[in-house]
Amino acid sequence: MKQNNTPLLQVKDLRVEYLTAGDPFAAVQDVSFDIHQNEVLGLAGESGCGKSTIAYALMRLHKPPALIRSGDIRFEGRSILTFDAERLRAWRWSEVSMVFQSAMNSLNPVMSILGQFSDMLKAHGKISRGEIIARTAEMLNMVGIPAERMHAYPHQLSGGMRQRVALALALTLRPKLIVMDEPTTALDVVVQREILQEVLRLREELGFSVLFITHDLALMAQISDRIGIMKGGEIVEIGTTEQIVTNPQHDYTRALWSAMPVLEQPKEAGANVR
Amino acid sequence: MLDDHVDILRLEKITKTFHIKPVFGSAKTVEALRNVNLSLKPGKALALVGESGSGKSTVGRMIVQHYEATSGRILFEGSDIADIADRASQMRYRQAVQMVFQDPFSSLNPAHTIRHHLQRALRLHQPDHAGEADVCRILDEVELDPNTTPDKYPHELSGGQRQRVNFARALAVNARLIVADEPTSMLDVSIRKSVLALMQRLKAERGLSILYITHDIATAEYLAEDTAVMFRGQVVEQGPTSDVVGAPKHSYTQLLRAAVPDPRQRLLAGDSGFSSHAKDVREASAHLVTGMIEQAPGHFTAQQ
After folding, report:
1. What pLDDT does residue B221 have?
2. Is A262 within 8 Å of B218 when comparing Cβ atoms?
3. Where is the ABC transporter domain (chain B) (predicted)?
4. Contact check, Cβ <8 Å, B221/A274
5. Which domains does chain A have, with CATH numbers?
6. How do residues B250-264 score in pLDDT, each as one tens digit?
7. What is the CATH number of domain B4-215?
8. What is the mean pLDDT of residues A249-274?
9. What ipTM does this complex have?
């Protein structure tokens, strides 16, 4: 999967703390990892282990009382911690975009789908009304939504369709990295599978990297190239998907696997399910 | 399914139509349930599986009398719950049938301690057994620390612990049937199994019957002897879980089964047939069910 040797994103000794009345709480403790071009990196862990904090910190979307205490985040070799506000604004979404947790609720409820695309496109350069419509239609088609639905409001779309819109929005400016924070948690399994299939197809077509965050290890193993396991703000194990699935080294990884309700294989095992 | 005497719960030809009159736009009717037949034996669990909007929660809410059936009968231990007239039998029914909700964060009163939640249920339904010792006994039964938990407030407990309190509340009134509406879907994957194990134990040790409503077909086989799969308000397949989940016959159940994440199977970009297949199956499964075909003893699939 690697095209050259410089990783797209390098996170080194990242430490994010939340200021509290007492001692600061380190939600992310000296975490390091790389994401290569065209790679899907999964981050798994229980609620509260710091995985969403990492996602926000990567785009510098974290807000006080959270702050990056030490470490570095480099995107294509440039440290994003040194970006000023203007540069950061241009960089976000055009190079790194995000599909938020419960993305179905991340759309503005009082704006049509077209309006949301228009907002985003206008923020990143001069563009005519005609071009906005053409672009929106193209992106909606890409994620499998009929273009005429661009005039619909979020409440007129189903949960799965809203999720696809959020994905289309994240893809519009052709970013090199998409952060997906529990993108399908609220959806049922059939829709979830459809959307992930879509993500993989688009990655093949457009070529982007994904940081995929979820607590569902089985799902993660299906789409990631490498997986990092987080516990208490630290990455306790990181390795290829095959290694994490077949030969987990850390006790916590093994504990996570054994806590998962996984279906028996019916096709091979026959009717003997219990 | 033929023996009337042994079913603790039985739904016969249940239909539910909602009339929706939005502030804007025209009124419309939604057929939430179409001719649903289900049965549950004492001390067993029935899993009701389906996607969001398939009507499975409506079934649960009708059983606890939040909604009335448009037509059809719900029999609890052989008698129609629509016939409950006097307050005493109403009270008895509410004591026997308890519901556990999906969201453990909003189903407990944030202003009261866990002791209050349990004692209130005890006082209402078992006034003689509302002491401290009884609260401790019930907490112990759901594997919560009986010494420290009573004084805690809901926000001091994790999601899994809160869900245990909800089960404790159902135990406090000596419920015989628990309607558990997605009790694990808001919990982390890693603690789902322990809550399922609790339900399994309550079923085995206390002889509780459980109607387990879920969209996660993978968890059905941990708990339920029987499984019914719903789609667009109709039951499309039902029977023993080992048959329905292990060797599904209806195309919608097969689709659900295939979509469960399996870490051993990598998804590939080229595998785009899934979406079009899913669309075809959904369309075919939405048709009116005209009858049920028996595939194996007790294992039925819908004919559409």
Report:
1. 86
2. yes
3. 9-257
4. yes
5. 9-258 (3.40.50.300)
6. 999 999 988 888 888
7. 3.40.50.300
8. 67
9. 0.78
